[in-house]
Amino acid sequence: MKFGMRIKQLLIVGGLVAGFCQGASAAEVAGVKFEDAVKVGGKELKLNGAGTRAWAGLVKVYAIGMYLTEKKNTPADVLAMTGPRRMKLVLLRKVNNEELGQAFMDGLNKNSDKAEKSKFVDQTVKMGEVFASISDLDKGSVIVTDYIPDVGLQVYVNDKKLGEPMTGLAFANAYFKIWLGDKPADSSLKEKLLGN
């Protein structure tokens, strides 16, 4: 009887410890939980870092996490990767599609020079069309952008695929530079995405 009780106690404690360790490995930012690992393009990606973006430094607009095949802590290292990547963005307030699309396009333009932008004009137009197709998004809406080599950059909103993939690593890098470039959306968020 005592032996059976002891086994039960050990199983309960073991379960609690496993649960604690599992919970500790995933990140939670502004109440949003980011999975520790995800599968993209048949490969496992790990959460590299996560943080929040506030507009005008006051209102938190979204929480975002970056997933890579291996941990990287400099923009150059991230942009040199040729494998799959993911950005997962969760809205912390209602946002209309115009302000969201404008913010993405501003970030793209600020962090790519004229020569770079000339290489992905078609992809930029496609991205504009994707944002134009989104209706206003409520708090809790999820925008996932996956880059898969030989496929391109694909946008999903609340698990629904939008448009066709935007091809080319150059465009994927331009997209990631919205947060990781020399003029990022938010410099403290840039450091968090890099796990610094």
Cα end-to-end separation: 52 Å
Second CATH tier, the architecture: 3-Layer(bba) Sandwich
Rg: 19 Å
Number of domains: 1
Q: Report the average pLDDT across residues.
A: 86
Q: What helical percentage do the residues reach?
A: 40-55%
Structural class of the helix and strand makeup? alpha+beta
Highest CATH level, the class = Alpha Beta
Shape: globular
Strands of the largest sheet, in order across it?
Answer: 3-4-5-6-7-8-9
Task: Indicate the proportion of strand residues.
Answer: 25-35%
- Count the beta strands: 9
CATH fold-level label: Chalcone isomerase
Largest sheet: 7 strands, antiparallel
Instruction: Note the total helix count.
Output: 7
- The unreliable regions are 1-24
The helix/strand order is HEEEEEHEHHHEEEHH
Signal peptide: 1-26
Protein name: Lipoprotein transmembrane
InterPro entries: Chalcone_isomerase (IPR016087), Chalcone_isomerase_3-sand (IPR016088), Chalcone_isomerase_sf (IPR036298)
GO molecular function, one term: intramolecular lyase activity
Give a summary of the structure in a few sentences.
The protein has 196 residues and is of the alpha+beta class. It has helices spanning 2-25, 75-79, 97-110, 114-119, 121-133, 169-180, 187-193; strands at residues 27-29, 32-34, 37-40, 43-55, 59-68, 85-91, 142-148, 152-157, 160-166.
Task: Provide an overview of this structure.
It is a single chain. A 7-stranded antiparallel beta sheet has the order 3-4-5-6-7-8-9. A two-stranded antiparallel ribbon has the order 1-2. It has one domain: Chalcone isomerase. The radius of gyration is 19 Å and the shape is globular. It has helices at residues 2-25, 75-79, 97-110, 114-119, 121-133, 169-180, 187-193; strands spanning 27-29, 32-34, 37-40, 43-55, 59-68, 85-91, 142-148, 152-157, 160-166. It is α+β, with helices and mostly antiparallel strands and 196 residues long.
